[in-house]
Amino acid sequence: MRVVSGMRPTGKLHLGHYFGVIRNWVKLQEEHECYFFIADWHALTTAYKNTKELRKNIREVMIDWLALGLDPNKSVLFIQSLVKEHAELCLLFGMLTPKSWLELNPTYKDLKYNLLRLSDLEKNFKEKLESNIEEFIKLVPFEISNPEKFREHLLENLTQTMIEALFEGEIEPEILKKLNVSKRDFYETDTFGFLGYPVLQTADILVYKGEAVPVGEDQLPHIELSREIARRFNRLYGKVFPEPKALLTETPKIPGTDGRKMSKSYGNAVFFADTKEEVEKKVMKMFTDPQKIRKNDPGRPEICPVFSWHKLFTQDRELVERIERDCRTGKLGCVECKRILLKHLEEFLEPIRERRKELEKRIEEIEEVFYENSKKARGEAQKTMEEVRKAMNLP
What we know:
The chain is mainly alpha-helical. It has 16 helices and five strands. The strands form two sheets. A three-stranded parallel sheet has the order 1-2-3. The protein is flat.
């Protein structure tokens, strides 16, 4: 079975990437024909304004992939943008994909819903400011040649200032929590590329005639859209593409050091590039049960991020059970619990850290491996595009 999947290059990888994606890829490469790519074009759907770190981030992903066990002799590991056929097939799929399909994408629907809520909020701000704007204009110590135009200009800018202050947490922080969005979502993400990224995602899979895509449940609508596009193409032009199926994978949830989802943007991640000292500092600052203030206070392991990590990194099951029991009875303090975790976490991280250091010294050689793999991937993609052009009567 041919498996296809990709990962956006956002910098060094952390524990969440491993348990959420990479660990499963390493298993799949032992049993299937796998194409895994660094999705640098997909990175532009939200980070198109800042590409200064893009090449550096691509190299970091290369190093981490190899350090974590992905093998270019077992999988085709390549860079998306070096295979131009992804873009060509995306263009052709875009011609036959109804816009309504893309607007029903849950990720895009959430964005549009929040944009509408922001629009209502701007309207509300403007209405409240409007009733006082005349009094404000009277305070201006200059002659105004066009009062009406000045009034509109002032009202618009004051409204935007209110929105910016909201996003910076300077006013009504509860409103921002209800919106569940960021400044970037509103002002940078509603682009053609963001709307159409499921089409590019479909091209990524089908240009290799991918039969399966490893995903979590939240990604199922995207795979179903890929199947719809494949069906529509085959119905219009003849059978060229398989309908890719989702490979649902169980991925253990590893919380960040503060209990939230592990994310670089939250500053709560442990990276494979972290030194032993950096890891120790992060672990010893980890959040625990807020009700366990003193060592002898009974704890609740089920809500403690430290205990969640014990279940992943402490291989001795009897020790894990004892930690849970001693935490509940107040016999085990949080500091000691973290020290035990740190020992077992380091047993996991140290070999990866050492492999990573060795790979960093060979970065040019590694880049060459990915470039050669990209040529191999492109050869497969070119075969597919010959079929596509023939089916669509293109020269």
